[in-house]
Design brief:
Low-confidence stretches: none
Shape: globular
Radius of gyration: 20 Å
Strand content: 15-25%
Largest sheet: 5 strands, mixed
Structural class: alpha/beta
Helix content: 25-40%
Order of helices and strands: EEEHEEEHEHEEEHHHHHEHEH
Mean pLDDT: 93
């Protein structure tokens, strides 16, 4: 009989569960709203896993800092969940061991094993959403770190005098290179009396400017919107260069919400990456590509995590 590997990706608003066949293909999926509170959280995950049928293995991907033993130490998007032993509680509820990991680490596992990075040994996943998450594959191994916290790359400081970050510091990479970072760059330009078309799309209020307005104007060919996307590409590339100097990967896989408009971003990111790269003319350049698995990546990777312990 074929195995039924189940993975659940937990987001701030929804939990997506999938079933993988032996080839790593999704054969079933279901969704549930993400509830507040620890008890309801465990109930929802257990119910969703059960609804997906007979289970051979179960992995859970959650945002934030997750220990190797399945304790959510801190998560920016889960209400009232801190220092919570979700792995142990689910294992006791279901009667078998459950693997829990960071959602971006799970996405990295998915793209490495069954996605665009299949066949590579050194890969960095960068999820560009409201913030920035990451996952690292080095030497053919998924890296989780001494405590399980590898991949909090959005909190690399790129400007100590930059804007405040929810983490409590200033100038973190995700303040510039995430979806919210794109919106901040656009609002600043709109307040400075630029981005006229973007401002129209936002209803005339610069404080209502969103990344979606920039994308819409850019698709119309608006030069000012394209200029903001170019500047955004610089900030993404700056962080990728820092990671290149540290990890020397073969490939960067860019995922998250911004991947839906990859065609707008890939050119500026690749251009700035090459311009900023240390000793660019003397070394192989890592590939910079967008992810192939879409919103399922975290759940698919979670289903694979039990094989990657």
């Amino acid at each position: 009989m074929s195995s039924r590997r189940i993975g659940i990706d937990v987001g701030g608003t929804k939990c997506l569960g999938v079933v993988l066949d032996d080839a790593g293909e999704v054969i079933e999926e279901q969704r549930r709203p993400t509830p507040p509170g620890t008890e309801a959280f465990v109930d929802t995950l257990a119910e969703l896993a059960g609804a997906l049928g007979v289970i051979d293995s179960l992995g859970i991907g959650v945002p934030g800092m997750v220990t190797r033993s399945g304790i959510i130490k801190a998560s920016p998007n889960l209400i009232d969940i801190t220092d919570f032993e979700v792995g142990r509680m689910l294992s006791e509820r279901l009667g078998f061991e459950v693997e829990v990991g960071n959602d971006a680490t799970c996405a990295a596992a998915a793209e490495w094993k069954v996605g665009v990075a299949r066949g590579f040994t050194d890969v960095v996943m960068v999820t560009l959403g409201t913030g920035i998450g990451g996952g690292v594959v080095a030497g053919g191994h998924l890296i989780r770190g001494a405590n399980g916290f590898t991949g909090e790359i959005g909190h690399m400081v790129v400007d100590p005098d930059g804007p405040p970050c929810p983490c409590g510091r200033r100038g973190c990479w995700e303040r510039y290179a995430s979806g919210s970072g794109l919106a901040r760059l656009a609002r600043e330009a709109a307040i400075a009396k630029r981005l006229r078309r973007v401002l129209q799309l936002a209803g005339g209020d610069p404080f209502n400017v969103r990344g979606e307005n920039v994308q819409a104007a850019a698709r119309e060919g608006d030069a000012e919107a394209l200029g903001v996307i170019d500047r955004f590409g610089y900030w993404v590339a700056l962080g990728l260069n820092n990671l290149t100097n540290l990890l020397d990967p073969q490939m960067f896989v860019l995922g998250g919400g911004l991947a839906a408009s990859a065609d707008l971003y890939i050119g500026p990111i690749q251009k700035w990456f090459s311009e900023l790269l240390y000793a660019a003319e003397l070394r192989p350049h890592p590939q910079v590509v967008f992810a192939s698995l879409g919103e399922r990546a975290g759940a698919v990777g979670a289903a694979l995590m039990t094989e990657l312990r």
